[in-house]
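B., you asked whether I could sanity-check this one before it goes into the benchmark set. Here's the sequence:
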Amino acid sequence: MSVRLLRDFGARPFGVKLIGLVRRIPMRISEPMTMVTDYLLATVALFFARGLFRAAGPGARRCVRLWAWGFLILAAAALVGGTFHGGAFYLADPVRRALWNVTVYFIGFASALMVAGTAASRIARRDESARWLLTGLAVSLLGMAVQQSSLHFGQDFNHNDIYHCIQIAALWPFYRGARLLEDR
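And here's what the prediction gave me:
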């Protein structure tokens, strides 16, 4: 199938590097920008998970460790979600449904770990950590509103892509707030 024909179907061809030679092998990616923003979200979440594990230290600060696990599971959810969004042309329907279910369950599990980390901490309304976490929550809620809308920037940047970018921005205040938490 030619690259031109693939473009007519909305797919994007990607080059594959083989032993120093670049050869264009047409791959059909169903939602390329959504896949890329999901993978970017996974990368950022993984980076922040690593920072939180380091900040928690060995055997201490259980609340920060719960947040770190939440970020790690969130990274896994974004990886699986990116595969779901990008691989529609290659995956059978039962596999796609399973990937989506895993994505949703991981998001729920990550959220539960983050809530548990906050509940296990000595957070008070006027703490700096509370301000950071509430900022992250506000940015996430904004992202959820955008995701439920039909907002898009051109044909290739839809509401899911915008949501992923907003959620990436929300990870920073969540990370900052979680680093400041102390166990009860």
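One thing to flag: Helices lie at 3-8, 32-56, 62-86, 93-119, 128-148, 159-180. Otherwise nothing jumped out at me.
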